[in-house]
Specification:
Blueprint (H helix, E strand, L loop, with lengths): L2 H7 L5 H24 L9 H12 L22 H6 L21 H21 L6 E5 L3 H15 L5 E5 L4 H9 L3 E5 L2 E3 L2 E3 L2 H11 L4 E7 L11 H11 L3 E4 L7 H13 L4 E5 H5 L6 E5 L2 H10 L7 H42 L13 E5 L7 H13 L6 E3 L6 E3 L2 E3 L13 E5 L6 H53 L1
Parallel strand pairs: 2-3, 2-6, 6-7, 7-8
Antiparallel strand pairs: 1-9, 4-5, 8-9, 10-14, 11-14, 12-13
Helix pairs in contact: 1-2, 3-5, 5-13, 6-7, 6-12, 9-10, 13-15, 14-15
């Protein structure tokens, strides 16, 4: 209601009550006006009432919600279900136009504002996380893999002769399939083992550039966030190589936005060399449902070109989810979430160390990976049945997210290419291991329950395996004893003869 409406209310109820209510409404409206005016992420999170007030007012700016609107086009944001309409706050036009995902829609001023404001919030979040000098970013209603495809297709327009993408191996299908889907030939660079960690083979990358020719390479596609014992790629050195050879550099930063280590690598790489664009998931970094990602970079023209590659309009749902979540958190809430995750990683590592010490295993040393950790399973080495049982036991005890990687995992075909020992990021890792990660949203209770259940499962599996080994040793000893006794008997018989 406007000021006149509140004045009219004083004819119905005492004016003192109306003035007090008017002040309360004004406070919320001031929050909204300040946010739109300054286009900056609020320090303190908003309550749900204020967020919904803004959403309802923005929804009324879309043509499908105009009183007396007469839509005669093929897309008029009509809803066949009232439940679906409420789920989307009656905004059904989506974002963008047929030629550009970031374009403004004439029929959807409210939805277009949400798209613009959510992109502003995300850019602020990325800067807070560590990439302080990025020039542009936008939310894409596709998960990380397909968003990386958009980046590759945009680079194809700039480098029409290029056929190859150099890719330090990471055993995660999305990024590799993105290369193949884009029509490029992947040049897989095997990692090198340094201590317990798998690191980028820079020498092999430089050799491949010299062999293939820099002009024939679309880009180097590196990775930050990954499962231990693989470490983030050496981004600074790769950025220097890309700058020296004039090769674009794309970074798969899927869940690296939550890690100050990963974001520091990205910022430093952009400072010392070339880093064109990095892509991250919305669900893994902002605690929203699966379905979106953020494309960001240091070259505004390239980011705009990538947005124009997207064909057709797009769903507004990922943008709306991020918009609501970041307004709920505020800057302070987001910073706390990042700090809490960092503490949870330390706590997870400490508690897991206690468990592995009891069971005679090892927490692998992967200091460059500050999200994931790996635990050796050397006592189950070569026992595929027990390893399968271990994974199953954890899953049936409601432990999700762990991965058991065997020393002798079978080869796997991905998009027509065969990888040896798939899952280990290398053709042969020295031991079998189990991984766990400390991602945003994890609590101390999660860690406590995990280590308790891990301890029980290891006790069952390792004890069971040890019992089998002891039985096998006993049988072998008895067999050897019988052979020795028989030999002794034969020698005694010969002497008597």
């Amino acid at each position: 209601m406007n000021d006149e409406s509140f004045s009219l209310c004083e004819r119905l109820i005492p004016s003192s009550y109306v003035r007090q209510a008017h002040q309360a409404v004004r406070a919320r409206e001031t929050q909204i006006r300040t946010f739109i005016e300054h286009r900056r992420w609020p320090e303190d999170g908003w309550d749900d009432v204020t967020i919904e007030l803004l959403l309802h007012e923005l929804a009324m700016m879309d043509s499908n919600n105009f009183p007396g609107n007469c839509g005669v086009g093929e897309r008029e944001a009509r809803f066949g279900s009232e439940l679906v309409a409420r789920r989307h706050y009656r905004m059904g036009h989506g974002i963008g136009r047929s030629g550009d995902i970031t374009a403004i829609q004439p029929k959807a001023a409210g939805s277009s504002l949400i798209m613009k404001l959510s992109n502003i919030l995300v850019k602020d979040a990325i800067k807070i996380a560590g990439a302080r000098t990025i020039t542009s970013s936008f939310i894409v209603p596709m998960a990380t893999g397909m968003s990386i495809v958009l980046c590759f297709l945009a680079l194809r327009n700039q480098r029409p002769k290029a056929k190859y993408i150099i890719w330090p191996r990471i055993d995660q299908k999305s990024c590799f399939k993105a290369i193949v889907t884009s029509g490029f030939i992947p040049i897989v660079i095997e990692n090198v083992l340094e201590g317990d960690e798998l690191r980028t083979d820079l020498n092999e990358i430089e050799r491949k550039i010299e062999e293939l020719g820099a002009e024939n390479i679309c880009c180097i596609c590196s990775t930050t966030s990954c499962f231990a014992p693989r470490a983030p790629d050496r981004l600074e050195e790769l950025a220097t190589i890309c700058s020296k050879n004039n090769i674009p550099h794309v970074v798969n930063n899927a869940y690296g936005l939550q890690s100050t280590k990963c974001m520091h690598l990205i910022q430093q790489a952009s400072r010392v060399g070339r880093l064109d664009v990095f892509v991250q998931s919305t669900d893994k970094n902002f605690l929203v449902p699966v379905g979106g990602s953020v494309i960001a970079g240091y070259n505004k023209e390239l980011i705009e070109e990538i947005s124009r590659v997207y064909p057709g309009r797009a769903s507004a749902t990922p943008s709306l989810d991020v918009f609501i979540t970041l307004l709920s958190q505020g800057v302070k809430g987001y910073k706390k979430m990042l700090a809490d995750r960092k503490e949870m990683y330390k706590y997870l590592a400490e508690e897991v160390q206690k468990v592995v010490d009891v069971h005679g295993e090892k927490l692998l040393s992967t200091k460059n990976n500050t999200i994931s950790l790996a635990i050796s399973l050397s006592q189950l080495h070569g026992n595929s049945k027990q390893l399968t049982e271990l994974g199953s036991m954890l899953f049936t005890r409601f432990v999700s997210g762990t991965r058991v990687v065997a020393y002798d995992s079978p080869s796997k075909e991905v998009a027509g290419y065969t990888f040896q020992n798939y899952g280990a990021h290398t053709n042969r890792y020295p031991c079998t291991y189990l991984t766990a990660a400390a991602a945003v949203g994890m609590t101390r209770n999660d860690v406590d329950m995990f280590v308790k259940r891990l301890d029980k499962v290891l006790s069952k599996c390792i004890t069971k395996d040890s019992t089998k080994s002891d039985l096998k040793d006993t049988l072998e000893t008895e067999a050897l004893s019988k052979k020795l006794n028989m030999a002794s008997f034969n020698e005694s018989s010969e002497e008597k003869t």
